[in-house]
Amino acid sequence: MDSFADLGFARVDTSREARQGAPEAIVAEGKTPAEIRAIAQALLDAEASSVLVTRADAEARAALREVAPDAQEDERARLAWVARDVPEARGTVAIVSGGTSDLPVVREAQVRAELLGTNVVVHVDAGVAGLHRLEPALPDLKRADCVVVVAGWDAALASVVGGLVGAPVIAVPTSTGYGATFGGVSALLAMITSCAAGVAVVNIDDGFGAGTIAARIARQSA
Amino acid sequence: MDSFADLGFARVDTSREARQGAPEAIVAEGKTPAEIRAIAQALLDAEASSVLVTRADAEARAALREVAPDAQEDERARLAWVARDVPEARGTVAIVSGGTSDLPVVREAQVRAELLGTNVVVHVDAGVAGLHRLEPALPDLKRADCVVVVAGWDAALASVVGGLVGAPVIAVPTSTGYGATFGGVSALLAMITSCAAGVAVVNIDDGFGAGTIAARIARQSA
Amino acid sequence: MDSFADLGFARVDTSREARQGAPEAIVAEGKTPAEIRAIAQALLDAEASSVLVTRADAEARAALREVAPDAQEDERARLAWVARDVPEARGTVAIVSGGTSDLPVVREAQVRAELLGTNVVVHVDAGVAGLHRLEPALPDLKRADCVVVVAGWDAALASVVGGLVGAPVIAVPTSTGYGATFGGVSALLAMITSCAAGVAVVNIDDGFGAGTIAARIARQSA
Amino acid sequence: MDSFADLGFARVDTSREARQGAPEAIVAEGKTPAEIRAIAQALLDAEASSVLVTRADAEARAALREVAPDAQEDERARLAWVARDVPEARGTVAIVSGGTSDLPVVREAQVRAELLGTNVVVHVDAGVAGLHRLEPALPDLKRADCVVVVAGWDAALASVVGGLVGAPVIAVPTSTGYGATFGGVSALLAMITSCAAGVAVVNIDDGFGAGTIAARIARQSA
Amino acid sequence: MDSFADLGFARVDTSREARQGAPEAIVAEGKTPAEIRAIAQALLDAEASSVLVTRADAEARAALREVAPDAQEDERARLAWVARDVPEARGTVAIVSGGTSDLPVVREAQVRAELLGTNVVVHVDAGVAGLHRLEPALPDLKRADCVVVVAGWDAALASVVGGLVGAPVIAVPTSTGYGATFGGVSALLAMITSCAAGVAVVNIDDGFGAGTIAARIARQSA
Amino acid sequence: MDSFADLGFARVDTSREARQGAPEAIVAEGKTPAEIRAIAQALLDAEASSVLVTRADAEARAALREVAPDAQEDERARLAWVARDVPEARGTVAIVSGGTSDLPVVREAQVRAELLGTNVVVHVDAGVAGLHRLEPALPDLKRADCVVVVAGWDAALASVVGGLVGAPVIAVPTSTGYGATFGGVSALLAMITSCAAGVAVVNIDDGFGAGTIAARIARQSA
Amino acid sequence: MDSFADLGFARVDTSREARQGAPEAIVAEGKTPAEIRAIAQALLDAEASSVLVTRADAEARAALREVAPDAQEDERARLAWVARDVPEARGTVAIVSGGTSDLPVVREAQVRAELLGTNVVVHVDAGVAGLHRLEPALPDLKRADCVVVVAGWDAALASVVGGLVGAPVIAVPTSTGYGATFGGVSALLAMITSCAAGVAVVNIDDGFGAGTIAARIARQSA
Amino acid sequence: MDSFADLGFARVDTSREARQGAPEAIVAEGKTPAEIRAIAQALLDAEASSVLVTRADAEARAALREVAPDAQEDERARLAWVARDVPEARGTVAIVSGGTSDLPVVREAQVRAELLGTNVVVHVDAGVAGLHRLEPALPDLKRADCVVVVAGWDAALASVVGGLVGAPVIAVPTSTGYGATFGGVSALLAMITSCAAGVAVVNIDDGFGAGTIAARIARQSA
Ligand SMILES: Nc1ncnc2c1ncn2[C@@H]1O[C@H](COP(=O)(O)O)[C@@H](O)[C@H]1O
Ligand SMILES: Nc1ncnc2c1ncn2[C@@H]1O[C@H](COP(=O)(O)O)[C@@H](O)[C@H]1O
Ligand SMILES: Nc1ncnc2c1ncn2[C@@H]1O[C@H](COP(=O)(O)O)[C@@H](O)[C@H]1O
Ligand SMILES: Nc1ncnc2c1ncn2[C@@H]1O[C@H](COP(=O)(O)O)[C@@H](O)[C@H]1O
Ligand SMILES: [Mg+2]
Ligand SMILES: [Mg+2]
Ligand SMILES: [Mg+2]
Ligand SMILES: [Mg+2]
Ligand SMILES: [Mg+2]
Ligand SMILES: [Mg+2]
Ligand SMILES: [Mg+2]
Ligand SMILES: [Mg+2]
After folding, report:
1. Distance between CA D156 and CA D149 in Å, rounded?
2. Which part of the chain is the PurE domain (chains A, B, C, D, E, F, G, H) (predicted)?
């Protein structure tokens, strides 16, 4: 029943969407434009509801446009995507970030979640250094089916939010910061040892993963 | 609106359950039996639906029994708990572990999730070294509202399960193993870099955290 | 001008108090009771305003009592001390901790700061998992000349406090927690990468160091 | 009472100065020139006493100049700032560095401290490899209300200074050096485990943080 | 009996092939084109069965062509090689990779193994996120004398294959991925702690090492 | 075709031997004696050719004896095993260790390899600090079908052997040593970065894994 | 020419002294008393000038006494040794430590250096927190042929001494301290990145190694 | 007595040579050409016997030439130096490296040692992968007053040499290699845990430090 398209250099998992409700996506790094093109084509041929290319430089994004003229992109977030048969939106994901520099990761999570068919509301730069900036976001956070917290540095925002809301919290450490932030490691450690129960963590800068699990949670909660 | 019981050595967050749907729990390590007793009493006085003491040695478990004769315990998992007004079960969490030695963490997740009011089904020792052992678990995993994967060593089970099911996957790295397992660090790293999208990770050996988020997901999905 | 008492196995820095305003203290670990006795005696002979023994087991604490019958002790915090000519208290240090298990470190900071001649006010268990528990502490924190934040796990409390008060903040990571807390490393990293400016950090579990610098700041601010 | 300017991509904490006595600053890395411009404008609109942009390349520094023609800059330290209503200087901060290469971090600490309204005296390249070079700095260090030690490599200077002065010492590890300096990690570890009590540490290369806490200490000590 | 060619800057181990059945190869990084040329010439003079230059940029690959016009190359895998007296192929190595981005490492292993005289069969992109993609590879894997698993991220494929085949498994962690993959460290740790017995690991991205040991195993098994 | 015995707390992989030529073994740590007994019984019932219990204290070893009176044990190596239908020995594995303290790991590798049906020859304490002690071992090492190098500290022996023999080399880092050996991590790193090609590495102290892969290589080479 | 005594479990390098001027020594950890006895006997039979057992608990020290009634011991330093034909002392080694707790390592270095035939002068507890305590040691340090600095915590003493003396400096990091000392790692890193040129480092707590190289330097300098 | 030249941005330690027998050197990284020029001039004015600039790109090397037309340079080793009053050579240092890529570090050690007044003999590329290549170097190594071993990867050469020679061994880990070499960390760890006693280690790639201590040892041994 499970199938894939064998391109030689890639076995495109065309049955992932049927199996798991979310189509395979393409990490552009480490792939040639030709490979991206072929993989995207294979996914489109298999009627993927959407195709998302992440970590995509200009060349990689152009590759998608060649096989899908209706492709959209976000340069700063290094994303290109094409929405074909996106499921009707169900449930709501609220994304909140600690700072402005977390924006690319916020966007990656947002685009993925929307492509999987969920509503997304975003609050950027509500970090703990000025906690009152979180307040206007609280109604959205408390109302959401899943909350995604995107933060670098000490990532304290994840614990603060994790102590306030009743929804599942997905935390995304980001590589923003310098020195002992160690490219997001300190944020990851703070998030995974959060004193607030009910917080689970994805890889550093992995907006894609966060968007995937958050959309699943939100959709099945609606 | 938010309140706490001030015991001097502890500010027991008696409003956590109202605020977040899950009562505060007690980590026994670092607390005296008298402190555990007092905190448990404060939670019971505030009509917590349940009180759970984790990382509890015999003395700590006895402390709970003194204030709650109806307390139950699991020695191997170092747990004591009392179920008072547990919400009616909604939704299902499936827990699967890689090995037998993961049992204490499995139990911690299970007890917490059940106390929060969800159904739990458990499959122990279905690790990747003998992948066919996972097959009988698959129907349960595919049917669950949330899947919890508990694994030490290389934690490859998280990725395998994460590539098969459509539900959100919460991964719990365990400290089982020796040498370069580094007390669960290698498992944590493998899980957080899982090639399967939709997997989020909690702290090493943190069955409690996994049970908390899993129950939230399951209950709101039902 | 600078002097020391040469005991062969130790060169007791008897001029430290004159030079730096805070007497030498004794880390008991790695020293025999006889050595502790002799060092304490040398400090008392040199008219130290106080003698503090940290990381002291029962034997080490007894050693101090033998040379100073007026010695006090705190078993849980593994402290013994004798106050002889403590300067009149000037300024105020506010200490706040994330959890109950941080108590020994809180106490070490408090005793040291008081022995150096400052007022200390303490708030235990005001962690971020239930942020409303911090509110009653805020007036004290905002009024203090120096704030000491003691926290383990993700240590998010340091950033929250660091974003609210105008006084210098000294953060003490503690080794409470398990798994990826790595004995306080995650707390240390979160504190040192705090998104709140004006937070400086001492060693893991180093209540002594925090008490020393906090007392200096408070006294010179009064 | 607390307020912020909502720019969509940023919630500028315009009440930070009123709340904590030090205005919000801007880390340029991760922000576009347009964002820097807008944030700086919002701070100026809110009558910040100064605006400081750190980690700023030429483009980022130009962005500040566009909204504040009176902006100053330090290319090597990657700083741009505008001083508008800087408080009258109170107290003194002494900054001492181990080597010449630490200069950019020294400058960042100095500029921030001066903008917050304190006097700063600087001694560069007084490292332990030639300890006699520290002697001419000692009177300034002993007279200061707060001493900032900036050092890379082994950072031994922090402990030496920490054993000589009575003022609070803020240590800034720098990323100077190669090999096992690990980008400042070895310096950070040496500073945070300093055998001299009363030393507290900020992030690697974080002149900004050091300047902030040092100015607070110095001002309230005067 | 053992000999070498002394070039001053290099002592080319011309007897390695006689001693160990595999000729010395050349890591291009850290060597000048002139050095590569001279070393390659020395190996050819000593009648090496093949000369392989790894980690070779365009200049380094050109260097080999200058002394061996019959040289071949693979730009993406940064390889250049010349096959002179390659032993007749004996035994079979099966290489399987988790993703498309692992291709350069796959190629390095393949070329080295073939130059040592063994048959190589390759399956790319059969990772665990879509396990059914492994199935068509299984007959080849079960039939091989040695299986090489090349994978980045969580490297779960190594354990899955290690639990299915009876042949020795050589695992090669790759540096594909971002965030907490730490340049292949997480993959290395997962592979070396594999719950499947009979898996041994080489350095991150070390296709060369894997090809060497795999060819030895395959040839002596035939 | 693949089967397992479901004991509730364990799914004993009774088909592993048929599938992979080596029976499942039992890590005693983390299991109760009753569990060990039941798992061993299940393996014996399924006609495993041998049952091996590793990391076994006295209680765990006694558990095996209860179900298999013919069990043997090695206290220092913490092993218990029963040999029932061990295949006739084919091929030869040579094990060489750097020091005397590596003996438990040497023994674990030896017992496992012998139980899988291969000849084993052992040379203990031939480390690089006195390289001439390796010489008498060389004929055995050069003659073997697979060489296992067991070493702690700097593990230099692996590279020396790896530069001398033509057979595949399996390296086992051990946790012998103190200080910067970091429980075997330094040995692991040295082995995995060996300048000798054709060396592959298993987990720290993992004699079991080394014995498994070495026996496979030796048997198929004979 | 090079020889060894083959005891089966050990190949005692009886020619090390002739080859390298320093007899093989015995690390007791990981060896049985019987093994220690036999190795010591083999060394004595081969007319070692001395036999030194390090990391020796009471049992291990007793083992040496059984074969050498003239053995001496130091319980705190966990040493036992027998001096038989110690070369006449040549040259001088000066050992200086940062604190009292470094004593066991100081002693290990001292005993080893004396057994190799050199004069040793010791200064304990002259750390940087009270730098004036170093002054009385300076004449000895400046006069020595080799200086050994033993220090834990931040190990700043190594750099201070390294900037003052003209002799080669051997630095020994110790595991004294807690928290971010990481068992001596921070000291090791500070020493190996010392801003003072001419400092070389041995393993954490490795008084033995320091004593060996220091004695070699001192003897050949006399 | 001790003096320095105060340049504002640098306090040039002009008395280092009188105090310690080796003139201060200049790390070019982090300094402007103008600063390098001024520091070099200050050293020449103070009659340094030599001036050495390390980690020097073309600009930095040109800076030295401007103040010292007789300056020499080594581009690959990124060195510039001027020899003015180099002491007559005494004693011999033997440098041996594992590979060709270690050449820059070898050269840095050699130049520094020669400038301090000692004879240097060099053997490049004698690594353990082909141990017979070490043999021709052995007479030089055994004859030397100090042996410097320069090696990357597993750095096994340090232990092999450390087990053969009677002279003090200074080991220099290099950053050659990829993957788990971690920029020289694995080499550092292997060297510092060497099973051969009498090996001491300097920083990764620190030919300068090795040359300094080796020259000291050699000169005082002659
Ligand atoms: N096993 C556990 N792991 C992690 N967190 C826990 C665990 N058990 C309880 N908790 C949480 O830890 C907090 C208790 O912290 P404390 O104030 O130290 O008792 C509570 O808020 C619980 O939600
Ligand atoms: N390559 C090198 N590695 C380590 N230290 C060096 C090197 N070159 C010079 N030095 C030392 O580093 C110090 C220079 O530090 P700085 O003040 O930054 O110039 C001098 O005291 C030199 O002894
Ligand atoms: N890609 C590679 N990875 C690891 N080792 C390699 C690689 N290519 C060649 N080698 C080995 O590295 C050694 C070359 O080291 P060098 O003396 O620096 O040229 C040779 O003995 C090769 O066997
Ligand atoms: N930004 C991302 N981070 C993590 N995983 C991703 C990302 N984008 C795509 N993926 C997943 O990575 C896999 C792509 O692997 P590959 O075979 O290398 O293309 C897909 O199955 C995606 O689900
Ligand atoms: Mg912001
Ligand atoms: Mg099992
Ligand atoms: Mg609490
Ligand atoms: Mg300098
Ligand atoms: Mg793929
Ligand atoms: Mg031995
Ligand atoms: Mg002391
Ligand atoms: Mg070479």
Report:
1. 10
2. 91-222
Residue C153's contacts (CB-CB under 8 Å, 6 or more residues apart) are A193, A194, A195, C98, C99, C127, C176, C177, C181, C186, C187
- Distance from the CA of F65 to the center of ligand 7, in angstroms? 47
In sequence order, what DSSP letters do the residues of D43-87 get, joined into one string?
A: HHHTT-SEEEEES--HHHHHHHHHH-TT-EEETTTTEEEEESSPP
Task: Give the closest residue (by CA) to ligand 2 atom 16.
Answer: D99
Burial of E76 (0-12, 13-18, 19+ CB in 10 A): exposed
Give the number of the atom of ligand 3 that is nearest the alpha carbon of residue E212: 23
CB B130 to CB F8 under 8 A?
Answer: no
Q: Which of D101, D105, D131, D181 to mutate to test the pocket of ligand 2 (most atoms within 8 A of CB)?
A: D101
ipTM for the predicted complex: 0.97
Is 90 exceeded by the pLDDT of residue B1? no
| Chains in contact with chain F (at least 3 beta-carbon pairs closer than 8 A) | B, E, G, H
CA of G168 to the centre of ligand 7 (A): 53
CB E205 within 8 A of CB E103: no
Tokens coding D214: 């040092």
Contact assignment for A130 to C163 by CB distance below 8 Å: yes
- The answer to whether G191 and D154 are in contact (CB under 8 A) is yes
Ligand 4 near E125 CB (within 6 A): yes
Say which residues have a Cβ less than 8 Å from residue F114's Cβ, sequence separation at least 6. F86, F89, F120
Answer yes or no: do B166 and A198 touch at CB < 8 A: no
- Strand A146-151 to strand F92-97: parallel, antiparallel, or no bridges (unpaired)? unpaired
H186 to chain F: which residues are within 8 Å by CB? Answer: 186, 189-190, 192-193
Distance H13 CA to ligand 8 centre (A): 8
Chains F and A touch, contact meaning at least 3 pairs of CB atoms under 8 angstroms apart: no
Q: Residue F84's CB: how many other CB atoms inside 10 A?
A: 15
Whether ligand 3 lies within 6 angstroms of the CB of H101 is answered as yes
> Residues D87, D89, D92, D94: what is their CA dihedral angle, to the nearest 10 degrees?
70
* SS3 label, residue B91: coil
Secondary structure (3-state) at E161: helix
Contact A10 E178 (CB under 8 A): no
E89 near E119, Cβ under 8 Å? yes
Distance CA F8, CA F11 (A): 7
DSSP E strands in C36-98: the ranges are: 50-54, 72-74, 79-83, 92-97
Query: Partners of C122 in the beta sheet?
Result: C95
CA distance C18 to chain G (A): 12
Give dist(CA D57, CA D128) in Å, integer: 32
Model pLDDT for residues H75-116, shown as the tens digit of each residue: 999 999 999 999 999 999 999 999 999 999 999 999 999 999
Give, rounded to a whole angstrom, the gap between the first and last alpha carbons of chain E. Answer: 29
Residue with tokens 């139990």: B107
Can you read off the two tokens belonging to residue G20? 């390298």
Q: Which domains does chain A have, with CATH numbers?
A: 5-83 (no CATH), 92-221 (3.40.50.1970)
**Could you tell me which of B66, B128, B69, B74 has the C-alpha nearest to residue B96?**
B128
Residue by residue, pLDDT tens for chain D (222 residues) are: 689 999 999 999 999 999 999 999 999 999 999 999 999 999 999 999 999 999 999 999 999 999 999 999 999 999 999 999 999 999 999 999 999 999 999 999 999 999 999 999 999 999 999 999 999 999 999 999 999 999 999 999 999 999 999 999 999 999 999 999 999 999 999 999 999 998 999 999 999 999 999 999 999 999
Distance (angstroms) between ligand 7 centre and the Cα of A185 equals: 26
